[in-house]
Amino acid sequence: MLCEHCNERDAVVESIKVLPTGVKHEHLCDKCAKAKGVETTITMQQHALGEMMQAVQQQASLVTADAASCGFCGATARDFRLTGRLGCAHCYEAMEHSLRELLRRLHGNSKHVGKRYIAPQVQMESKVDSVHDLEDRLRRAVESEQFELAAELRDRIRVIE
Question: Do the Cβ atoms of 86 and 92 come closer than 8 Å?
Answer without folding.
Answer: yes
